[in-house]
Amino acid sequence: MAVNLLDFDLEGLAAWCEGLGEKRFRAVQLYRWIHQRGESDFEKMSDLAKSLRAKLAGSAEVRGLPLIGEHRSADGTIKWLFDVGGGNAVESVYIPEDDRGTLCVSSQAGCAVGCRFCSTGHQGFSRNLTSGEIVAQLWFAEHRLRGADGERVIDNVVMMGMGEPLQNYAALVPALKTMLDDHAYGLSRRRVTVSTSGMVAMIDRLREDCPVALAVSLHAPDDALRDQLVPLNHKDGIEALLAACVRYLDAAPRDFVTFEYCMLDGVNDAPEQAQALVRLLKGRVPCKLNLIPFNPFPASGLKRSPRERVTAFARVLQDAGIVTTVRKTRGDDIDAACGQLAGEVQDRTRAHERMLRAPVRLPTRGVPLQETKA
Ligand code: SAH
Ligand code: SF4
Question: Of 14, 49, 59, 123, which one's alpha carbon is 20 to 30 angstroms from that of 330?
């Protein structure tokens, strides 16, 4: 199959072009055509030498993802479903705000981490996306939405779609580099966020290879509960995770880590749990807390915390001096809100069955989560 040029960051493209006997500045021209102009037809890249165009035509292509569906929410959010082959499909979500546009990008077809409250987690895992498939989501969205004036539309990317980005590290890093490159999308490091369920070793590698803004999905103030909600917590535990966050901040473009905390009714939303969170974080990790009201889906057996409980939880944190925001739910009328992205996954891990076989026990009360259903 022809090489997909979306797979390359600029260094990769320059090396590949060198193999064709082409100088680096040719690679820069090509990269700019692809990412800044959204061009996929080599014939239209008018300032590329004819000889290079001929070489490209025989060996390469700019292969975007086939679009399966587009849904527009009443609030302006747009969700796209892309075919990634083999019966798998992934989703991306564009979230317009007054002064900026954010694209939420997927990194895997499914996810192997298996968090209880996440629709993708329940679907299991099929495969990693390639760098080209990650970048293709931005390439498509940016050029789909860009108006005649050529003004950039997307200025934030959050790796918060389907998948655990740090479990697809080798493909993630070149994709991030293309997002940041001034010859491509030129996004600020502060405006590209990797969200992770907390893979300690990989947080350390990201710090070395491509530090961008970091969001860590915490969801619990202690290991006993986090083990139940985010199964990979068993490996390193919260202490090691927080230490990795502190190390990350040395190199990070922002001086805080964002902790995401999905508010689950009767599970992790008690005021005592907010106090435990304060004891865990205060004076230890410069951070902001982002409380995400749980977005329900039928198989989860979980409920969203009532609004008053979320407010009370936020107040405990704020009173302790921890900057805390409650995330506005966007696009829930088209199932585009956090954790609702499901796409289509040919599961190879039997995740859903496993979750049903092993109901989660709440450490505080010993009640299996599935029995907390009203
Ligand atoms: N795998 C990465 C990124 C994708 S999930 C991670 O876990 O961080 C993006 C965010 O949505 C995470 O904070 C995740 O915990 C949260 N999330 C997952 N399911 C959710 C749900 N049903 N309701 C609200 N937030 C959810
Ligand atoms: Fe995977 Fe993130 Fe969903 Fe957990 S919350 S299952 S890590 S996508």
Answer: 123
| Mutational pocket test of ligand 1: of 95, 160, 326, 327, the residue with most ligand atoms within 8 Å of the beta carbon | 160
The token pair that represents 357 in the structure block? 């076989």
Contacts of 79 (CB under 8 A, 6+ apart): 70, 71, 73, 91, 92, 93, 94, 331, 334, 335, 336, 341
| CA distance from start to end of the chain | 53
3-state DSSP assignment of residue 185: coil
Ligand 2 pocket (Cβ < 6 Å) reads 111, 113-115, 118, 120-121, 163-164, 197, 217
Distance CA 342, CA 130 (A): 19
Angle between the N-to-C axes of helices 10-19 and 24-35, in degrees from 0 to 180, rounded to the nearest 10: 130
Q: Are 81 and 343 in contact (CB under 8 A)?
A: yes
Residue 217 makes CB contacts below 8 A (sequence gap 6+) with 115, 195, 196, 197, 198, 230, 259, 260, 262
Tokens of 60: 């390469």
d(CA 121, CA 112): 7
Per-residue pLDDT of the chain (374 residues; tens, 9 = 90+): 899 999 999 999 999 999 999 999 999 999 999 999 999 999 999 999 999 999 999 899 999 999 999 999 999 999 999 999 999 999 999 999 988 899 999 999 999 999 999 999 998 999 999 999 999 999 999 999 998 888 889 999 999 999 999 999 999 999 999 999 999 999 999 999 999 999 999 999 999 999 999 999 999 999 999 999 999 999 999 999 999 999 999 999 999 999 999 999 999 999 999 999 999 999 999 999 999 999 988 888 899 999 999 999 999 999 999 999 998 877 777 777 666 666 778 877 777 777 766 665 655 444 555 444 33
Ligand 2 atom closest to Cα of residue 122: 6
